[in-house]
Amino acid sequence: MIKAIVVDDEALTTEYICRLLRNAGVEVQGYTNPYEAIENVNIQKPDVLFLDIEMPEMNGLELAKRVYASGYECEIVFITAYSQYAIDAFEVNALDYLLKPIMSETLNRSIERVKKRRSVTSYSKVSSTNKKIRISLLGNMSLYVGEEKKPIRWMTAKSAEIFAFMLLQKDEKEVSKWKLMEVIWPEKDMEKADINLRSTVSRLNKTLREHDIEISLISTRNGYALHKMESKIEIDAFKLENIAFSPTKINDENMEYYEEVISSYKGMLLEEFNSDWCYAARETYNRYFINGAQKLVKYYESMDAEPLKILNIIELIIKYEPYDEKIRENALRLNYRIGGRKGAEKYYIEYCELIKKDLQIEPSYSMKKLYKWMLENN
What we know:
By secondary structure, the protein is of the alpha/beta class.
């Protein structure tokens, strides 16, 4: 049986719509106070909300956004006497839009649409029970469902950014809305930032719902919390952090995992975002990468791996630390082992040209000494 909640500030209208729904076999509860309705949504767990748009304390559009922001999933049908709200209604993913006066025929059609949508959603959830969610924070922010090759499409860049920010707040159960407004919209005044925040949370949750991803940003007493029902979530940045701090030494059993994590570092954290909060996080995770990559280099050296294999990892480090002389000296030695004097000479000259152009300096004394030894001992 379909369960519904009706919210209309006019008691007679609420009672009338509830009666029509009961006649159609729907289990329904009516409210004239939108705040009371919100409190009871998670208790009664309706399949659909029938909401009047024009209400004095809280309009139906705002009510729908708050329900979505709380993480609860249900269909929305708006009821109003004013057709100009239709576009706004469908921006919050409304299933239907009914004009007053409500007739039983139009209401019954909406009920049938609810039944169809809920049956498809239920099937989708069952069929995707074991799906894996892959989230990439390295390079561009991307989220993949199951074995899909293409990431989901975010409604707005801010939706993706606020989702990434919340993912990175691992130790915080909730984040105050003031902090979110400050880091995501630092240039806007509090009133505009608050409007943007609520709108972005609504769009974010809508995107996740549309892809049957059981993750949502829910409203708390002081702000928002990330609610994750998915059991299989893989985040590349967290893998990087784990190997950087892991007390377990690299061995034959975990070497492939280290190689996979290090080689997957295709770009620094959240490169497409220019917000100030990203810079510190970006530098932190870059240090995790350097730490993990250097561990792998030391392991390769301890097992006397092929020079080219070691050099590939070192060149990956150099991509993000181009002026680190210790790393450059190691790379010079490997080029010497692989290509002899010519290999070392080519590498040394290219490095000299780089630091002269970028930093207006020459190689260090130890680097020059190492290069001189290679020339004399070839």
